[in-house]
Amino acid sequence: MSARVLVVDDEPAIRAGFQAYLGRAGFEVVEADGLARARQALLHSGLDAVLLDVRLPDGSGLDWIGELRDVCPGLVIIVMTGHGDVPLAVEAMRRGADQFVTKPVNMAEIDAFLRGALEGRPVRRSAAPRRMPHQRPPLFFGDSAAAQRLRELGALAAQNDSPVLLQGETGSGKSLLARWIHEHSARASRPFVELSCAVLSGELLASEMFGHARGAFTSALADKQGLLDVADGGTLFLDEVSEMELAIQAQFLKVLEEKRYRRLGEVAERKSEFRLICATNRNLRHETESARFRTDLFFRVNVFPIDVPPLRTRPEDVAGFVDHLLASLGAGPTVVLPEAVETLQQYAWPGNVRELRNALERALLLARGDALAPEHFRRLEAFGTRPPEVLKQEREWLLRSAIRNSHGNVAAAAQALGVSRATLYRRLQRLRET
């Protein structure tokens, strides 16, 4: 086996273990201790597979999966983590990973999986990336008055260093706006570090944010740099900040006040001069009234609030988003019939721009190179554009029927509805909350 495998992990002992075992098994092993070096290896090393740790010093491995799939769609991607929780596994697979393993890994199983995944396929190292990893399409705001107001507020946020709070529904583009603000700020040359407070909790979130010393807890086998350290001089983006537990909120409030913190298991203080951007799909003021979010922390993060409007409130922006998203999907010059655009403008888009992107991707597959027509968006009719009360009842009936007909298989129910599993989970959660 002459395939080349990139191992991305910040612990030297783990990389050395893979180097020794996979090297003896006939693989060529390339190492990287973080995302920055992994991106360089992707450009210059010609890879067939990636073994990717989730928590890295300069970001989340999960956030790199989409970029990997976009740049080199044929790569075999195995995600590794020291904490085998099911939601993280589901998220990794949803984003495009081929396999998910927990540490300590079974080397023989990884060897077998790699051979099975690569068997019969041509070696892909000769295939050049379709696009440079750091090149992203520019952020599209829209042409409506609400979109232009959003752009103005984003530009104003980029001109100052105050904490920003982005509030809006799931899929409305808050994380993209956060990165845009960073890239148009004086800190653009410094790191943009993203941390989702919904993916990790408790000790794991604290370890990710603050870092830890060797022996700080059972699985702390080596010193680990925290994301606060990585974000020094740059921007720290806390996504879904409303999900942060109260104990961590208290610790983070102290960091905001003093710009100092301690790694878990250490006495020495460290300093980090980061710019803070937070995002949430909840009303943080209501969260404080329910004692789920600290009032003092709310006032610290709510210095410059920006509301990201949902797509359904600005149907005049849909056509522009369609053109922008088709370009980002690499669809080239695709004809979209006016009747199809009208269908998209009449839909409520509970999943916002993210759902629109998924609908377009599916429509491209159905159209097979022809113009996109209303029949390519039939799945959207399942939710229609009827009055809100009727719409809620119909959505609930459709969702529960799909799950019942699939005998509880969420993946099958999502496929029947033409949405991702994550979207289905969000819709069920929204129904429970309303």
Could you characterize the architecture of this molecule?
It is globular, with a radius of gyration of 23 Å. α13 (318-328) crosses α15. The strands form five sheets. Strands 2-1-3-6-7 form a five-stranded parallel β-sheet, with helices on both faces. It has 434 residues and is an alpha/beta fold. β4 and β5 (59-60) form a beta hairpin. Helix content is 45%, strand content 14%. The protein has 18 helices and 16 strands.
Structural class: alpha/beta
- CATH fold name of the largest domain, please? Rossmann fold
Report the principal-axis shape. globular
* Strand segment count: 16
Total of helices: 18
Q: Would you tell me the overall average pLDDT?
A: 82
The biggest beta sheet reads: 5 strands, parallel
Query: What is the second-level CATH architecture of the largest domain?
Result: 3-Layer(aba) Sandwich
CATH class of the largest domain: Alpha Beta
Helix content: 40-55%
Question: What integer value in Å does the Rg equal?
Answer: 23 Å
- Spatial strand order of the main sheet: 2-1-3-6-7
For the termini, the CA-CA separation is 55 Å
Name the beta content range: 5-15%
Number of structurally distinct domains: 4
CATH superfamily of the largest domain: P-loop containing nucleotide triphosphate hydrolases
pLDDT < 50 stretches: 120-135, 383-388
Descriptive keywords:
single chain, 434 residues, alpha/beta, Rossmann fold, Helicase, Ruva Protein, domain 3, 5-stranded parallel β-sheet, 18 helices, globular
